[in-house]
Each structure stands twice: as structure tokens, then as C-alpha cells.
Amino acid sequence: MIKPFYGQWTSAWIDFVVPSAENAGDHELGISVRDAEGNTLFATHLCVTVVHTHAPELEIVNAHWFHCDGLASHYGVEVFGEQHWSIIDAFMGSAARMGANSLLTPTWTPPLDTAMGDRGWPPN
Q1: Looking at residue 121, what is its pLDDT?
Q2: In sequence order, what are the residues at sequence separation of 6 or more whose Cβ sits closer than 8 angstroms to the Cβ of residue 27?
Q3: Which one of 41, 50, 67, 87 counts the least CB within 10 Å of its CB?
Q4: pLDDT tens-place string over residues 22-34
Q5: In degrees rounded to 5, what are phi and psi of residue 95?
Q6: Helix, strand, or coil here: 64?
Q7: Domain edges within the chain
């Protein structure tokens, strides 16, 4: 569930897994946005074309930043607790399935959105 906040843009990543070339062709995808009570606020349909091909293995490093502390913060779990490791494992698996072959993991993520005069990084 994505919880939007007033005045902020929120996005969603939709990942399509196509199990075999037999699924090639045009497919209709229904997307809807609902409130907490289940009322539909917006609905649309998109046409997704699955092509009959397979992307070759990458010959380059496909690196992405991976902020483990951000996952703990987002999901409200203890950093490096059992739930956190399960979440990290799920996200690393997703990254691998999407072709990432290198993850850059900072020890900690500095708060870049700290108000002027407050303690933060970079120093104000």
C-alpha cells in the first residue's frame, strides 16, 4: 500500500515477470487507486506489449545504491533485526532479478532534508 501525503509526489514501481515467450503479445492491464475504505478514486486500463525476445546478459557492472537503513525506517523495523534482514533479502533478490549485479550499500544515510539551523549533513 502506498500512503500519499498532501503536497508530495508519490510513485510506484510495477514489475512485470513474463515466465515464457508464449506470453508474447498485447495484454490489457487494469490499474486502480483506492482509499482506505476501498472506494475507487481512479481507474484506468493500459495496453502492455510483451515482445518475443530475451535481453542478453549484461557485460557491464549494473550498480545501484541500496540504503538498508532506509528500508528499516520505511517499514518501521529494528535495524539489523530479523525482520530487517528478511526485508533486505527480499529487496536484494528483486534487484538481482531485475539485472542489478552490484549494490552499493552505505553504512548510514545522512539526512539531507534537515531544516537550516538543525543538526544534519552536510553541515549548515
Answers
A1: 45
A2: 47, 48, 49, 50
A3: 41
A4: 889 999 999 998 8
A5: -60, -45
A6: strand
A7: 21-50, 63-104
Pick from 66, 60, 70, 68: nearest CA to 104: 66
The label of the residue with cell 509526489 reads: 9
**100, exposed or middle or buried, with CB in 10 Å at 0-12, 13-18, 19+?**
middle
DSSP letter string over 15-56? -----SGGG-EEEEEEEEEE-TT--EEEEEEEEEEEPS--PP
Q: Which three cell numbers stand for residue 96?
A: 538481482
Question: Residue 85: is its pLDDT beyond 90?
Answer: yes
Count of CB atoms within 10 A of residue 68's CB? 21
Joined grid coordinates for residue 81 = 533485526
**Mean pLDDT score, 3-12:** 80
122, pLDDT greater than 60? no
In angstroms, the Cα distances linking 26 to 16, 50, 51, 52, 93 are: 13, 6, 9, 11, 28
